[in-house]
Design brief:
The longest helix has 64 residues. The protein has 4 helices and 14 strands. A 6-stranded antiparallel barrel has the order 1-10-13-12-11-14. 43% of the residues lie in helices and 22% in strands. By secondary structure, it is α+β, with helices and mostly antiparallel strands. The protein is elongated and about 180 Å long. Helix 3 runs antiparallel to helix 4. It has 3 domains: 117 residues, Efflux pump adaptor protein, beta barrel domain (Elongation Factor Tu (Ef-tu), domain 3, Beta Barrel); 61 residues, RNA polymerase II/Efflux pump adaptor protein, barrel-sandwich hybrid domain (OB fold (Dihydrolipoamide Acetyltransferase, E2P), Beta Barrel), CATH 2.40.50.100; 130 residues, Helix Hairpins (Orthogonal Bundle), CATH 1.10.287.
């Protein structure tokens, strides 16, 4: 029993963990001093100062420096001289010769209207014109006939004058012979009676001559009236033919149809827009602020970006500047002379013509958004990012 305890105690000593060896204490390193300390402190300050100067420089170069050489705006869109096709006459639509968004050629018939009523109008106007021309020709023939009557009256006057002269000479002879008692008083009286008869005949024929000449004036007035009726009938016929020609509606220029509002069988009224045609020639209308237009002139180079093709850049040139702001030509222009006034920067439309439009972009639609930049001066070569 006395030997078991030491054995157990030895077992406990063998199983207990050994303490870690004691290391000598380390001395703290001394802080650097001299040139090394100076370099470590100056380097971050230099980098920070350089960044503090570089960032504003980059911001200025990126946002403000281009303004000295170019003027940009995103208030721009594709535009074209779109023309609308409208009817000039009331009629039913008989044919539509185009497809939705299809191409049309200049002079092609787009829409055909029912021509039957207008053909009847042309026939009636033709008959009225023929009647008026016949009436005028009849009056012209009467005037020609009246000239013959006038000539006959003139001849009768000459004959009467000769008869009166003979009767007067005969009466003078019988009167002398009666005074010399060569012939009887009865013969002188007979000669006097014949003279009176011939004188009365001359007066009657002169009156008839005046009537025939006056009738010519009446006929000439009727002729002018008939000619006026003829001209009127000719004008009615021309209008009827013109209305008949309106039954075929043509395309004024080549382009693409848009905004179709007509179908076969529709009854259209004069002035009713049936379809619009977008011509092939496109341009850009850019609305620049008035403060940006100081140095903008026609002919300056323009860079164009289309929202539908963001990776594509097109070139153009300034064609013209509208003489008036957009608000001035608005439906309800502002009235600055009344009420309170708040100054608002106005925008002026600038027309930009595309220099060369790729074939695949011929289908650009008016109203599509674009961004434009007008080069008002040549930038230095190191500002190549402006291009």
């Amino acid at each position: 029993m006395t030997l078991a305890a030491p054995l157990a105690g030895e077992a406990r000593l063998e199983t207990s963990p050994m303490p870690p060896p004691m290391l000598p204490p380390t001395k703290p390193s001394a802080p650097p001093s001299g040139p090394a300390l100076t370099r470590r402190r100056i380097a971050p300050l230099a980098i920070g100062s350089a960044l503090a100067m570089l960032v504003p420089t980059v911001v200025f170069a990126w946002f403000y420096l281009p303004g000295f050489y170019a003027m940009e705006t995103d208030d721009a869109q594709i535009d074209a001289h779109v023309f609308s096709i409208a009817s000039k006459i009331p009629a039913y639509v008989a044919a539509v010769n185009f497809d939705d968004n299809g191409r049309v050629q200049a002079g092609s018939v787009l829409i055909g209207l029912d021509p039957r009523s207008f053909e009847v109008a042309v026939s009636g106007a033709t008959a009225d014109l023929a009647n008026a021309e016949a009436n005028a020709a009849n009056i012209e023939a009467q005037i020609a006939e009246q000239q013959s009557v006038i000539a006959q009256a003139d001849a009768a006057i000459v004959s009467d004058q000769a008869a009166v002269k003979f009767a007067k000479d005969d009466y003078d002879r019988f009167e002398k012979m009666t005074a010399g008692h060569i012939t009887s008083v009865q013969d002188a009286q007979r000669a006097q009676t014949i003279l009176q008869q011939q004188t009365a005949q001359l007066q009657r024929d002169r009156a008839a001559q005046g009537a025939t000449r006056a009738h010519v004036a009446v006929l000439e007035t009727g002729l002018r009236q008939a000619q006026a009726v003829t001209d009127r009938a000719r004008a009615v016929l021309a209008q009827a033919r013109l209305d008949l020609s309106y039954t075929k509606i043509y395309a004024a220029s080549a382009g693409t149809v848009a905004g179709r509002k007509v179908e076969v069988g529709d009854y259209v009224q004069p002035g009713q827009v049936l379809v619009s045609v977008v011509p092939d020639a496109l341009y850009v209308t850019a609305n620049y602020k008035e403060s940006q237009l100081t140095d903008v002139k026609p002919g300056q180079r323009v860079t164009i970006r289309i929202d539908a093709f963001p990776s594509l850049r097109l070139t153009g040139h300034v064609d013209s500047l509208q003489r008036g702001t957009g608000s001035h030509f608005a439906l309800l222009p502002p009235e600055n002379a009344t009420g309170n006034f708040v100054k608002v920067v106005q925008r002026v439309p600038v027309k930009i013509v595309l220099d060369d439009l790729p074939e695949r972009l011929r289908g650009l639609a008016p109203g599509m958004s674009v961004e434009t930049r007008i080069d008002i001066a040549d930038p230095p070569s190191w500002l190549s990012f402006l291009d």
